[in-house]
Amino acid sequence: MHRDSLAAPVRFSTGIARPRTRLPAGACDCHVHVYDSSFPAAAGARLLPPDASVHDYRALQKRIGTTRTVLVTPSTYGTDNRCMLEALASLGSDARGVAVIDGSESDAELQRLHAVGVRGVRLNLSLGVSGSVDLLRPLAHRIAPLGWHLQLLMAPDMLAMQGEVLRHLPVPVVFDHFGRIAPALAGRHPAHALLLDLLQAGRAWIKLSGGYIVSEHHAVDDPALDALAAGYLCAAPQRVLWGSDWPHATASSGMQPMPDDARQIDRLADWAHQNGGPSALQRVLVDNPAALYGFAPLASS
Question: Which helix (H) or strand (E) holds 66?
Fold first, then answer.
């Protein structure tokens, strides 16, 4: 326990206390963006956050105790992955990338992305400015030979309509931000039932990221998140991941308050302990990311 110890302030994160939860070695933050205004935003981009660098993010790692990172190309840049790839090179072997592509890329380009640590592609049908639901099958077949996954963000109604497609894709599917399921929809919306089915069938993964986004109160402390998180952890404990969503571009744009990332860690720890016991946090933060993203085994102590 070291919640009462203080850390230096971190950009794009409220609070200065460290988490009360000490994280296991190799803990991975599976959803991070970087922004650099030297890379132009895509036409029509709706989120135009301030610059957020690897240097800024390392300060967050020091505060919360993570060591591994998954960088995701944000909607701001469309299919331009250069900002993410520059950060990926800076973070080195403790990082992996999730790119955005349109499917027209050459085999050589996809192999190049794989060689530098990309392990999946994201299709953002919520705030994205590129791609459409019609790309689900083509993108999945394009990346299948590489062993990549398809990461999805889409509204529940759209998600529910794609059940048959998702059940037969040749790649794993990763849903970020609780699958965009608001707590009030849990157990009621067919998209939630679909997510649980895909998880239990071993066809999907879920990121317990962006709890403050799906919460009616825009807060990770919302107790309504407890049952939603528990449902995922109980359905497929080996398929659950966590991500901070730093630097919280939707918060920077005024869509909700800026969260406290130490508090996000502690909320995850409570969910894991209550729905899997002492080993659950190790599984969510270390074992599951290693399996999905291909991180090297931890060096023996």
Answer: none
The one-character DSSP state at 225 is H
Distance CA 23, CA 6 (A): 16
Question: CA-to-CA distance for 228 and 184, rounded, in angstroms?
Answer: 9
- Please give the Cα distance from 10 to 274 (Å, whole number): 29
Residue 114 CB contacts under 8 Å (≥ 6 apart), including other chains? 146, 148
What is the rounded CA–CA span in Å between residue 290 and residue 42? 32
Q: Check if the beta carbon of residue 242 is closer than 8 Å to that of residue 30.
A: yes
Q: Count CA atoms closer than 13 A to 270's CA, side-chain side.
A: 14
Catalytic residue among 245, 260, 261, 266: 245
What 3-state class would DSSP assign to 277? coil
Active site residue 102: no
Amino acid occupying residue 40: P
What's the predicted TM-score (pTM) here? 0.96
Instruction: Return the percent helix, strand and coil in the chain, to nearest 5.
Output: 45, 15, 45
pLDDT in tens, 223-244: 999 999 999 999 999 999 999 9
